[in-house]
Specification:
The protein is of the alpha/beta class and 422 residues long. It has 13 helices and 15 strands. Strand 10, helix 11 and strand 11 form a beta-alpha-beta unit.
Length: 422
């Protein structure tokens, strides 16, 4: 069995944008949502900027009990899932609960709540020995990442495959890719899939400070994220969530659903090389791209837009540029490419799903979002990175890619379901 899988619903909670409409407005206008960290005093840290989500749990319809029980990342995921299900127009009562599942990605899971609980128990780190008397009754939930997709399953009555995918910064692509596989093979008919992360906490900021991966443009937060720019010096940490409803194509058409795109191909590879290092030739990402294109039966000449990982580190940007050239050949020079991390930062495991959302909206509006803050050319990044302003462009086929610590490289091809195979 090899059923075709389409995306029919979308929910987004990203920096500067409480929903998909505001998200697209921010991207298409080239605005940035990066700012000085407000969640805590960032002055002791090397990097003091981030892209935060303006999120009001009560206004989003979460009850006080839900807010107390769920980590911030879980809250974002549940709210995004509600938006996605509503957007899809699907009647879940008509779907067998055993044929509906959840696939959620996250890199650092409940990092926010774990750090908060540690600060309470240790009296902000002053006590080495900690008494369990002040332990939250929900601490177990924060320790077990699988509780995050379980919350979505409980919210919608999904009793089929429910999975947590956590493989760093490709989690948001890989979780959707896993959901596609389950529908293709016949294990599920409907999947709620996406990713969420809320890593803007002192411990996570300190970890990236230690390896000098994040930017030091603290005096100009709005222009701190500079993918592919010659003056870049690290990425901007972010948070967010994006969740989708995926269905088998025939069933979606039968109920008259709006189809954003078909997931034509997905592949993931590992470089088996280094925790954070990348080979300059981009071979592993190129292999993932080639495999995804082959699965989708898409020739490189058919790709209308590439949504790049584009983190804003020299190593990643140059590795990715090499991968595009290696996998697409001459067409790499002819295809518009951009990084939305220039506007919404790098939300670790969530960003792959947020970039899928951006890709779907680019297809919907036939507009390529820009790479903001791109003013100084890097000779080793010599492709068309759509600097600073959105570009109207026929966008029927999109390649979106991700790269993560541990050597993970993933690629997904989104297409219009009625296109002819190339």
């Amino acid at each position: 069995m090899n059923r075709r899988v389409v995306i029919t619903g979308m929910g987004v909670r990203a920096p500067g944008s409480p929903g998909k409409a505001a998200f697209w407005d921010l991207l298409s206008s080239g605005r940035t949502a990066t700012r000085r960290i407000s969640f805590f005093d960032p002055s002791p840290y090397r990097s003091q900027v981030a892209a935060e989500v303006d999120f009001d749990a009560a206004a989003e319809g979460l009850t006080p009990r839900e807010v107390r029980r769920m980590d911030r990342a879980t809250q974002l995921a549940v709210v995004a899932a509600r938006e996605a299900v509503a957007d899809s127009g699907i009647n879940l009562d008509a779907v067998s609960p055993y044929r509906m599942g959840v696939s959620l990605g996250s890199a650092v899971a409940a990092a926010t709540s774990l750090e908060q609980e540690y600060l309470v128990l240790s009296d902000s780190g002053s006590n080495w020995l900690m008494s369990p008397d002040h332990l939250s009754p929900h601490m177990f939930d924060h320790m077990i990442p699988s509780i995050m997709p379980a919350e979505i399953a409980w919210a919608f009555g999904a009793e089929g495959p429910v999975t947590m995918v956590s493989d760093g910064c490709t989690s948001g692509l890989d979780s959707v890719g896993h959901a596609v596989s389950l529908i293709r093979e016949g294990s599920a008919d409907v999947m709620i899939a996406g990713a969420t992360d809320t890593p803007i906490t002192p411990i996570v900021v300190a970890c990236f400070d230690a390896i000098k991966a994040t930017t030091t443009y603290n005096d100009d937060p709005a222009h701190a994220s500079k993918p592919f720019d010659g003056t870049r010096n690290g990425f901007v940490l972010a948070e967010g969530a994006a969740v989708f409803v995926l269905e088998e194509l025939t069933a979606a058409r039968r109920r008259g659903a709006h189809v954003y795109a078909e997931v034509g191909g997905f592949a993931t590879r590992c470089n088996a090389y280094h925790m954070t290092g990348l080979k300059a030739d981009g071979r592993e990402m190129a292999e993932a791209i080639r495999a995804a294109l082959d699965q989708a039966q898409v020739h490189p000449s058919v790709v209308d837009y590439i949504n790049a990982h584009g983190s804003g580190t020299k190593q990643n940007d140059r590795h990715e540029t090499a991968a595009f050239k290696r996998s697409l050949g001459e067409y790499a020079y002819k295809t518009p490419i951009s990084s939305i991390k220039s506007m919404v930062g790098h939300s670790l495991g969530a960003v792959g799903s947020i970039e899928i959302a951006a890709s779907l909206l680019a297809m919907e509006h036939h507009t390529v979002p820009p790479t903001a803050n791109l003013h100084v050319s890097d000779p080793q990044c010599d492709l068309d990175y759509v600097p600073n302003a959105a570009r109207e462009h026929r966008t029927d086929t999109v390649l979106t890619v991700g790269s993560g610590f541990g050597g993970f490289q993933s690629a997904m091809v989104l297409t219009q379901p009625d296109r002819e195979a190339a």
